[in-house]
Amino acid sequence: MVGDVPVGGPEPVVMAGPCSVEDEEQMVSTAKAVKAAGARVLRGGAFKPRTSPYSFRGMGLDGLKLLNTAKQETGLPIITEVMTPGDVDTVAQYSDVLQVGARNMQNYNLLDAVGETRMPVMVKRGLAASYEEWLLAAEYVLAGGNNNVMLCERGIRSFESMTRFTMDVAAIPVIKRLSHLPIIGDPSHSTGHWYLVTPVALSVIAAGAHGLLIEVHPNPDLAKCDGPQSLTFENFSNLMNQVRAVKGAL
Ligand code: PEP
Ligand code: MN
């Protein structure tokens, strides 16, 4: 359960919002738009793992506070990333799901730390992690006594560079066969391009994913992070309609 939202049941759970928290207007307007379109959880990064140290690395605690403002305005529960064991308590105060990012999937101290909480945790697949390595990362959280774990396929490294990563659609049925844990698909980070997000989202829903993680921004051209893969409010609303149609056809 994420707040009062069941994850892993028949209804796919869509978690949507900007890559990074930037300001109150951006967060609150996005929260209202994604809620109106049918999202059940609001995402937004306050602590950002960036490839370059010179890129925008997030607002930190101020960002967590803005997530909380958006939650108060809309009632949507929050998912946000935690990067270090020392930040777990603080992030847990402002968040409903602790996200372990792809780059931290094998940060075993972090996995132990989120495993000591009893909060929902999303473990994203490492950029080059096998299914077994990924499931064993989730096992760290479970071994700490925290059973509230979901997985997220967010694409893996391949030789292809036209897409940011390569969505491994087969991961969805493989994980469902090997594990009882809910599996979410992230077509935003796996593709890197807004026009690929909806078709790839539909493919993982058709493959049986329990939900989606989608980046949405009021003005993707001005986003401080991941603008090229972010959907406008209108495109997100269209995605949701198509997800409902595909789910209804299964
Ligand atoms: C994210 O979801 O904000 C993110 C950074 O994704 P990943 O860890 O999959 O790169
Ligand atoms: Mn992002």
Lateral arrangement of strands in the main beta sheet: 1-2-3-4-5-6-7-8
The fold-level CATH name is TIM Barrel
Number of strands: 8
Outline the biggest β-sheet. 8 strands, parallel, barrel
Mean pLDDT: 98
Helical content (DSSP H or I, runs of 4+) = 40-55%
The string of secondary-structure elements, in order, is EHEHEHEHEHEHEHHEH
Helix segment count? 9
Shape: globular
> What would you say the CATH architecture is?
Alpha-Beta Barrel
- Which ligands occur here? phosphoenolpyruvate, manganese (II) ion
The end-to-end distance, rounded to whole angstroms, is 24 Å
Low-pLDDT ranges: none
Radius of gyration over alpha carbons? 16 Å
Strand-residue proportion:
5-15%
Structural class: alpha/beta
Query: How many individual domains?
Result: 1
CATH C-level? Alpha Beta
> Which superfamily, in CATH terms, is the homologous superfamily?
Aldolase class I
How does this structure look, described?
With 250 residues, this protein is an alpha/beta fold. The protein has a single domain (13-249), classed as TIM Barrel. The protein has nine helices and eight strands. It has helices spanning 24-37, 61-74, 88-94, 108-116, 131-143, 171-178, 187-191, 194-206, 233-249, and strands at 13-17, 41-43, 78-81, 97-100, 121-124, 149-153, 183-185, 211-215. Strand 1, helix 1 and strand 2 form a beta-alpha-beta unit. Helix 1 runs parallel beside helix 9 (233-249) and helix 8 (194-206) packs parallel to helix 9 (233-249). The chain starts with 12 loop residues before the first strand and ends with a helix. The mean pLDDT is 98.
